[in-house]
Amino acid sequence: MKFAKLLIPFMFASPLVLADQVATLEQEEVPFHRAAFDLLKQSIPMQTVPGKGEVPRYAALIKENLLSAGFSDKDVQIIPYKDTAAMLIRYRGDGSSGKKPILFSAHLDVVPADSDDWERDPFTLIEDDTFYYGRGTSDNKFDVAVITATFMRLKSEGFVPNRDLVIAFTGDEETDMATTMMLTRDYRDEIDAEYAFVIDGGGGLLDDNGNATQFIVNSAEKTYATFTVTARNPGGHSSVPRQDNAIYDLAQALQKLDAYEFPVRYNELTLSYFKQAAQFEGGELGAAMLTFADDTTNKEALAKLRSEPTMIGNTGTTCVPTMLDAGHAENALPQSATATINCRIFPGVSVEETLARLQRVMDNPALEWKTLGEPIASDASPLLPEVFAAIEKNIRVDYPAIPVVPKMAPGASDALHFRAAGIPSYTMTGIFLRPEDEMSHGLNERVTKFSLPRSLTLWHNMIKTLASDTAN
Ligand SMILES: [Zn+2]
């Protein structure tokens, strides 16, 4: 019962989660709180996992909600794709700002969940005093409900934005991202935007007392690329070993990779992250973050950062061997030896450049190289002042002292494809969680209940700031 122990300080010591300080569903102090909750609750039982074909039903539910709030049929498109679907929702503005639209994105699919492993049924929304539980509560049906309800609320208020607002809901973010690529390829004009908010990840962190400590906005992702490298040999009987051997050849090449230091890389985003996040780290690591942010040639600071698994990726590309496959019989000389090398490439560095570097470092022209799949590189998004000023202003309505920390995400999301299509993208959610309660993709996925009204307020105010002339 590790969880019960944690819940006590969280519920009673924290001013953030006390019921009288948070709008309740019953009182509906935040308009459309009930609508967002109902949409979330109705969506959890829809098993929008690969192969079940439930995404179109979920999309139809969202559409029904939007039409009831006054959106026209032609502005709420469901675009079928194999057994899933994407959605494009346009909130028409008066165009008075002369600015391009703002894109909002989230995904309708979830990763599978096995009821036998969960404490509660993953496909029923279950709540206690603090959390809503269920598959998709944090990733990503909560945010789908919030942005949908926010559009409904603004429409009901008669709000006319000074630029168009577009929602793109994707249908297979957790697997192939084929619906995202369909949107960036076949619907490029319809998703065209000055920038995008990918409402899936980032967001607020809480400490054990329920105090908000930082608000993260992911503004870049590393490029995921996997290569295989193979040494070949004629082989033969192991009782008569040859001078050359595929396993030795591959092992020697891998040792060269082990000894290699990838070049130092940094950008506006990683340096600003080091400066902001140093205060939460403290100690030697915090000091190294500050030193490196001031002087990227400082070797000691770099060595300290690179000794930390969670920090090394912020200082450059990383490539590590993850799998080996060699030989075919215990008494035969190996005819081939293959290593799989997984790279997380720093924004701005190409996949080809990285492969060429690996080939140089491992320095054996006889090795055969392959790139797996089709890795897509994306640059870091600029820290647009308009975007970050709006976040700082509106996040402080509920969290007055919180630092907004731009960050590079270690994993891939839909934002990768929007960036690759030339749309700067910022990943953030209004969800506040303790890191140990972040159970996306895992068992007993949950979201803090107080995050629902607060997220509704955040996105409502964000849109008012970014798409109207009168400040909210
Ligand atoms: Zn997600």
Structure description:
The chain is α/β, with parallel strands linked by helices and 472 residues long. It has two domains: 2-201 and 413-467, Aminopeptidase (3-Layer(aba) Sandwich); 223-372, Alpha-Beta Plaits, CATH 3.30.70. It is built from 13 helices and 19 strands. It has a six-stranded mixed beta sheet, sandwiched between helices. Strands 16-9-8-18 form a four-stranded mixed beta sheet. The longest helix is centred in the last third of the chain and has 17 residues, at 451-467. The site of zinc ion (ZN) has 5 residues, from loops. Zinc ion (ZN) binds next to loops.
| Unreliable segments of 5+ consecutive residues | 1-20
Task: Provide mean pLDDT, rounded.
Answer: 92
Computed structural class = alpha/beta
Report the CATH superfamily of the largest domain: Zn peptidases
CATH class of the largest domain: Alpha Beta
Total number of strands: 19
Gyration radius, to the nearest Å?
Answer: 25 Å
CATH architecture verdict of the largest domain = 3-Layer(aba) Sandwich
Reading side by side through the largest sheet, how are the strands ordered? 1-2-6-3-7-17
Could you list some keywords that capture this structure?
13 helices, alpha/beta, four-stranded mixed sheet, globular, Alpha-Beta Plaits, disordered N terminus, 472 residues, Aminopeptidase, binds zinc ion, six-stranded mixed sheet
